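protien #1 (seq + structre)
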Amino acid sequence: MKRARVALVTLALFSVASASAGISLDPNPPEPGRPLGVTIEETLRVSAEELMLSDPLREREIARFRFGRFPPAELRFDLPEDSWSLTIELFADGVVMARLPMDGMFLLTRPDEIAGPLPGDSFVHCDTLPPETTAADDRAPLIAWIEGCILDHAPLRGRDLRAMDLSDRSLWRADLRAADLSDARMRHVELGGASLAGARLDGADLVGARLELADLQGASLVVTDLDGADLRNADLRDADLSHASLSNADLSGARLQGAILDDTDFTGAICPDGTRSKHSCRNHLELP
């Protein structure tokens, strides 16, 4: 699914102190056309690999910095005068470890100034989830919300997300309980700590997905492709994994008590007890 060009309007214009501990800005709030100082505490610097500044409303990257062996405590960047918004993300192993603001973005100009140059674009209010609907034709507002907003901690319980493209997105600790993700494309998605209890993921493409500590109790994963997925310490109790593929997946510490494993492919997977499987993990489900 191609990401729609949308303008995000959010109420997340709070101070840096409340946005994310460990990162501070000077000036706060940031101002277009002025140098911006970004100070990162040592606890974050030691594990960080990359810092990225982006302008979500203009859909562009502003700057990117890769940390070396001795990263500086403060970094300075020039914000373009025509900047409309700002999001700052700190990465480690390709995963967002910190973000400013935690939900949304800094709005650097007035909404009426943003609307003019973008005729035909729609506004997505990331602080308000579109109402639920049972009609497939009425999913457009939800699709726009998902494509345009930050999805970490997203409240998507029970939502119809069938066949959506969420590849490479971050839904860290999102609430997806009882959601319908059948046939969704979710390659390399970040679902660490997400709540997926009772969710339907039949036929979904979760190749390389990160599901560490995810709650998948009672979830349906029939014919789901989980090749190379990270399922360490995930809860898969009573889940239906019939005909699913977990080839080369990491299930270290995962709980599969009561799970349905009919014709499940565990070739090359690391079983819950740490054993590398040749074909099946059936005899290696007990945790050490």
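ok now protien #2
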Amino acid sequence: MSSVWKNEFRRSFCNKGMLLSLAIGIGLVIWHQMTFVWPVALEIEEFDCIESLYYRWLGGNGFSVQNYVFFMILPLLSSLPVGSIYCKDLKSRYYMHYYLRGQKKQYLLARYVTTFVVGGLSVLIPLVISIVLTAMKFPALRPEVIMSYEPYRNAVGHSLYFSHPFLFVMLTCFIIFVFAGGFATIVLLVSFHTQYAIVASITPFALYYFLYSLNCIFLQTSWSAPDCFLNPARGVCMTKELILGGIIFFMIGAIYLGKARRYE
């Protein structure tokens, strides 16, 4: 790995925004553990059914307030670690350090990839911690229909939920990682139009909440609201959201690279 990539990953991981994002995410996980995992008995006597990891981790069901808050602020968690970096680079002309050394393309690509990866990891890490902590109390038993935790039938990977639940969880976490990284890359475009790092950092969440509000106002169902189609409890991504998200994030990357190459 070249010095450009190493430096950009270091800048993206080692900053106050990353610490703040992880503190919020892990704080929600601990809160969820204290109220929704640790007090719960291993058996539900009424149904004679043993509890499972897949019912109780943070993404396992949508009945907890922590689940709602986490997936509602997901774009903010993904953008906090990277929201100020490119904005400050443009303001201070830090990028010229690479341009003068003939490393323009490496820098632009490294900035995009690190923004995507770090944005995704800032959301994925708390979810993985939730899975590990919950697994310390509940066994990873296959979900049962009687428990009524089944995701929507048109969700990606629905057929895996009862037959191979661990694969279902891994698939949903991967999709969440991709969307979180995609939301984080929005800050790259916003950075061209503002000198304020805070504006770049909160824009993905503002856009996310705007889409959520439109859904609540104009649609009869909340299935297509952002906090629903990225929530494993309801089923991550129906096909249309997955395709639309892929197209939008590809366009964001293409616009950023095209605009950044012309920016001096």
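Residues 104-135 form the longest helix (32 residues).
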